[in-house]
Amino acid sequence: MNPEQFTPQSVLVIMAHADDIEFGVSGSVCKWIAAGAEVSYCIITDGSSGSNDPETDIAQLVETRREEQLKAAQIVGVHDVRFLGYQDGSLQPTIELRRDLTRLIREVRPERVVTFDPTTIFTRDGSYINHPDHRAAGEAAVYATFPSAESRPIFAELLAEGLEPHKVCDLYLVLSNDANTWVDISDHIAQKQDALRCHASQLDEKVVQMVVGWNAELGKKHEVQYAEMFRVMNFRPNEDDGDKSE
Ligand SMILES: [Zn+2]
Q1: Ligand 1 mean position to 47 CA, how many Å?
Q2: Over 24-79, what HEC string results?
């Protein structure tokens, strides 16, 4: 696994649920923002499956999760948060979702897209069956990134909305069994914990410390305090042409 090679100027993070970003990438988001990047968030589902309590007021839950996500974004310095409102728990990688994400990529025009690795069904350590919404979000976002966002004939109706094709420079995938890149988040672990704590309807301090433990374990392997890891696909024509500020 290699340390991160390129510092992005702009990033779009596309995840299924409110709180997915805080688990997987919020430390790196802090780092990219500190280096001058503009970061946007997109949460695909409405969060309506975030409770098993039969007494839950679903409309209230959706509102709460939206507020929690906005607070978590604010803590790390993200001011652009989009909610697509798809139903939580039964997300499919439909052509409609791919079109919605293509529209967003062409509008935000990020250098980097971050999403889930859609190939992960099980984690390799055997501890987790990946949520199907994560895989659906990842598949739609990966194919929106390539080929849809950069190909003029695909979703030609978006041209009428003034959305010209856009080529993304690299793709960062979370929750991957094939991670190839790590990011040192040691300076941002406190912010990451605070962002996680915003999701009080979904997790408690035990979960926050479990995530910190994962980041510490990974950091130890690379002789830093805390790290996050990604499977990175780099689409730059030649590595030497890019911004090698890290
Ligand atoms: Zn999730």
Answers
A1: 9
A2: HCHHHHHHHHHCCCEEEEEEEECCCCCCCCCCCCHHHHHHHHHHHHHHHHHHHCCC
Question: What distance in Å separates the CA atoms of residue 244 and residue 5, rounded to the nearest whole number?
Answer: 6
CA 142 to chain centre: 12
Here the tokens at position 166 are: 């856009």
Before 54, cis peptide (omega within 30)? no
Cα of 115 to ligand 1 centre, how many Å? 11
Q: Could you give the dihedral angle defined by the CA atoms of residues 186, 193, 69 and 40, in that order, rounded to the nearest 10 degrees?
A: 0
242 alpha carbon – ligand 1 mean position (Å): 32
Residue 20 Cα to ligand 1 middle (Å): 5
Report CA 218 to chain centroid distance, whole Å. 19
pLDDT tens digits, one per residue of 132-181? 999 999 999 999 999 999 999 999 999 999 999 999 999 999 999 999 99
Q: Which of 192, 239, 224, 173 lies closest to 3, judged by CA?
A: 224
